[in-house]
Amino acid sequence: MTRRRIGLKVNGEERGLEIEDNAILLDVLRDGLGLKAAREGCGVGACGSCTVLVDGNPISSCLTLVRTLPDGAKITTVEGLANGNDLDPVQEAFLEEGAFQCAFCTSGMMLAVKALLAENPRPTEEEARTYLNGN
Ligand code: FES
Fold it and tell me: Whose CA is nearest to atom 3 of ligand 1?
């Protein structure tokens, strides 16, 4: 298996990684970097529990080959939302509303909401439902 080096900025930290050509982003985040919030639910891009942000855009990390990312891509996982003990407003809102159900997909939901609000700060309920239908 061919290996390559790639540089990513993960939750604001420069990370130099040596990966195999077929390395999947979800596996690299969880097993390589110890960031366990993104989880594999379906493994086929249908449930959103593995959602992370790449340069601000939500993607299914279970389907993403790391080698397809641009060198220096900015990856945000839910571990990168809070600033120390200060939660991100999206995290605060989830807490206030008890929006967790079983919590398996919560990190993906939070990141999708973060991306939605960056794009559209005041979405209607219908716009939010449409945007989040992949989660
Ligand atoms: S695990 Fe379901 S979309 Fe990635």
Answer: 45
